[in-house]
Amino acid sequence: MSKDHQVRAKKHLGQHFLTDESIAEKIADSLTYQGYDHVLEIGPGMGVLTKYLLKKDITTHVIEIDRDSVAYLQNNYLNLAERIIEKDFLKYNLKEVFEEHPFAIIGNFPYNISSQILFKTLEMRDQIPEFSGMFQKEVALRICSKEGSKVYGILSVLTQAFYDATYLFTVPPNVFNPPPKVDSGVLLLTRKENYTLPCDEKLFFRVVKTGFQQRRKTLRNSLKSFDLSENLKSNPIFDQRPEQLSVAQFIALTQLIENDNKS
C-alpha cells in the first residue's frame, strides 16, 4: 500500500499514520505486559506500532476496519494473520475473541472516536488492566487532569474513578502522514487495585455528566434535575462547581444523592 493510498484509505476515519519508528517503539514500551497474556492494538494501519508489539512476550491482536490495511497486514505480517480482526472496535463484542481473559489496549487512535474508545474501555474495565494510547494532546491532558484545572471534566472524572492516568509524552505533527494540525499526546491508564465504586455506578455517571453540562454553575444549580431534598441541598458540597470536586468527592456526592433518594 502506497503512502498516498494510505492517506486516502484513512481520511474518512480521522486517522493520521505515525511514521516515526522511535516513537512507535516508545509507545509499545509504555505497557508493563504484566498480569495479562494478550494485547489488542486498535487501528494498526500499516503496522508501524504492531511490529514492536510482536517483539514482546505477549500475544498481539489487532482490530482494523479498513480492508486495504487488513490486506497489507495479512501480506506483511504472516505470524499475525490469524489474529487480525476486521471489525469496528466500537461495535464489536470483544468477548468473541478474549472471552473472559484480561487484555491490554494500545494504539494510535483516530481523533474522532478516541473518547468513544475510552468509554468502551471503561465499560470493559474488568478485563482491561492497562491501556496506552495516542490522543489529540488536549484530550490526553483532559483525561489526566486533576480537580481545579480548567480542562478537568467528564473524561477526567470517569476515567480516574477506575484508572490511574499518566500523561507520558507529546508527539509533534511532523511525524504523521498526513500531519494533523495539532500536537498529539500519549497517555497510560493503569487500572486501580479497587476499581468497583462504593456507590451506584449509573447514578455516578449521571451525576458527573449532568454536573459538567453547566460547569460554571454551582452543583446546587447544575443538579436541579435530581429533585434533591432541601436538607441535602444545604450541604456545603453543593456550593462548589463541578471542576472543584475530586473523584473521591464525586463518589461521596453520589452516595449522598443515593441516600437522599432512599429517604
Which features characterize this protein?
263 residues; alpha/beta; Rossmann fold; Helicase, Ruva Protein, domain 3; 7-stranded mixed sheet; 12 helices; 9 strands; 37% helix; elongated
Q: At the fourth CATH level, what is the homologous superfamily of the largest domain? A: Vaccinia Virus protein VP39
Give the rounded overall mean pLDDT.
Answer: 93
Structural class: alpha/beta
The CATH topology of the largest domain is Rossmann fold
Count up the domains: 2
- Individual helix count: 12
Q: Give a short account of the largest sheet.
A: 7 strands, mixed
Cα-atom Rg, whole angstroms? 20 Å
Number of E-type strands? 9
Give the overall form: elongated
- Architecture of the largest domain, according to CATH? 3-Layer(aba) Sandwich
CATH class of the largest domain: Alpha Beta
Which strand order does the major sheet show?
4-3-2-5-6-9-7
Give helix and strand order, one letter per element, not per position: HEHEHEHEHEHEHHEEEHHHH
Assess the beta-strand content as a share of residues.
Answer: 15-25%
- Uncertain runs are 5-13
How far the N terminus sits from the C terminus, by CA atoms, comes to: 64 Å
Helical amount: 25-40%
GO molecular function: 16S rRNA (adenine(1518)-N(6)/adenine(1519)-N(6))-dimethyltransferase activity; RNA binding
Catalytic activity: adenosine(1518)/adenosine(1519) in 16S rRNA + 4 S-adenosyl-L-methionine = N(6)-dimethyladenosine(1518)/N(6)-dimethyladenosine(1519) in 16S rRNA + 4 S-adenosyl-L-homocysteine + 4 H(+)
Pfam family, one: RrnaAD
Function: Specifically dimethylates two adjacent adenosines (A1518 and A1519) in the loop of a conserved hairpin near the 3'-end of 16S rRNA in the 30S particle. May play a critical role in biogenesis of 30S subunits.
